[in-house]
TrEMBL record:
One of its GO terms (biological process) is mitotic G2 DNA damage checkpoint signaling. One of its GO terms (molecular function) is ATP binding. Residues 25-285 form the Protein kinase domain. Gene3D superfamilies: Transferase(Phosphotransferase) domain 1. This is non-specific serine/threonine protein kinase. It catalyses: L-threonyl-[protein] + ATP = O-phospho-L-threonyl-[protein] + ADP + H(+); L-seryl-[protein] + ATP = O-phospho-L-seryl-[protein] + ADP + H(+). Its EC number is 2.7.11.1. It comes from Caenorhabditis elegans. SMART domains: S_TKc. Keywords: ATP-binding, Kinase, Nucleotide-binding, Serine/threonine-protein kinase, Transferase. Belongs to the protein kinase superfamily. CAMK Ser/Thr protein kinase family. NIM1 subfamily. The lineage of its organism: Eukaryota, Metazoa, Ecdysozoa, Nematoda, Chromadorea. Transmembrane segments: none annotated. Pfam families: Pkinase (PF00069). It is an enzyme of class 2 (transferase).
């Protein structure tokens, strides 16, 4: 079972962080690893308050497939300009050995750190982050781009409360000359991939992003992942398929609005999965868990009255 996980060649951290007096920027600290290269925080030497995330990618000695994948990532991300919920490309340059991407810097870390930090994480924050994620995905899909690796580690945050979609190493265009493309390439992170990807079936780009966003929402609301992988051999996923209830203690604490949205987003059949428009018209998206007389919360739904049981 192989998933497309592009692994950059090993690079000495010291070489990535090495400053050079001729460069117009100064490397401040490492930030992590992207799909194709290591990322560091840099500042403009002339205007030190101007910060960016510098992604340096080795191109020397790489095969054609690797170079094409890098070019595709850069081209896709450059096409996604002008949206507050997508990390922006600020510039790029290259030399004989490396390609450099200067990216918008999000100063609040990533959503995974937020979820796992143990610090307070309110329903209001989860609601805000989810709405921004959906808004960002809507922008991507309107540009015919499927991200294909939506997970908390690829959702960057700012201290002012903004969420931004990052790391387009597995992204692809899903429409060609007006016709929607069907994919077979297995890619992504198994905890977040849709079942059609995991089982090796053909899939459509937007639907797999919706599934992954549903897993992210459930992780935000419960601080747990619902299953290790979306296959009937996994007992937690089997439990979900059989009862439409996540095998998580915190599931019983979720509102019916949230559960109703999760059922639509995590529908095993992609043809029945919620669309962006359906998500944005859902009660939980519009109001969160705030009481509203205009919303008819149907308590007579599976899981709203479910008595907990072990498998």
């Amino acid at each position: 079972m192989a998933y497309l996980q592009v692994v950059p060649p090993p690079i000495s951290p010291l070489s990535v962080l090495a400053n050079h007096p001729d460069r117009p920027y100064e490397v401040l600290k490492p930030l992590g690893q992207g799909s194709f290269g290591q990322v560091a925080l840099v500042s403009n030497r002339r205007y030190p308050e101007m910060l960016a995330a510098l992604k340096r990618i080795v191109i020397t000695g790489q095969d054609r497939e690797y170079i094409d994948a890098i070019r595709k990532e850069i081209t896709i991300q450059e096409s996604l300009t002008g949206h507050e919920n997508v990390i922006q490309v600020l510039g790029k340059e290259s030399d004989a050995q490396f390609c450099y991407m200067f990216l918008e810097y999000a100063d609040g870390g990533d959503l995974y750190e937020k979820i796992t930090s143990g610090c307070s994480f309110s329903l209001e924050e989860a609601h805000s982050y989810f709405k921004q994620l959906v808004n960002g995905l809507k922008f991507l899909h309107c540009r015919d781009v499927a991200h294909r690796d939506i997970k908390p580690e690829n959702l960057m945050l700012t201290h002012s409360g903004h969420l931004k979609i990052a790391d387009f190493g597995l992204a692809t265009w899903y429409r060609y000359k007006g016709a929607e493309l069907i994919f077979e390439q297995r890619c992504g992170s198994v905890e977040y991939v849709a079942p059609e990807i995991y089982t090796g079936a053909q899939y459509r780009g937007p639907q797999i992003d919706i599934w992954s966003a549903g897993v992210v929402l459930l992780a935000m609301l419960t601080r747990q992942l619902p299953w290790e992988f979306p296959c009937m051999t996994n007992k937690r996923y089997f439990f979900w398929m059989k009862n439409r209830v996540a095998h998580i203690d915190a599931w019983n604490e979720l509102s019916c609005r949230a559960k109703k949205l999760l059922w639509k987003m995590l529908s095993p059949g992609s043809e029945n999965r919620a669309t962006i428009e359906e998500i944005q018209s859902s009660a939980w998206y519009l109001f969160g868990d705030v009481e509203n007389d205009e919303v008819d919360d149907d308590d007579n739904l599976p899981g709203c009255f479910f008595l907990w049981q072990e498998i």
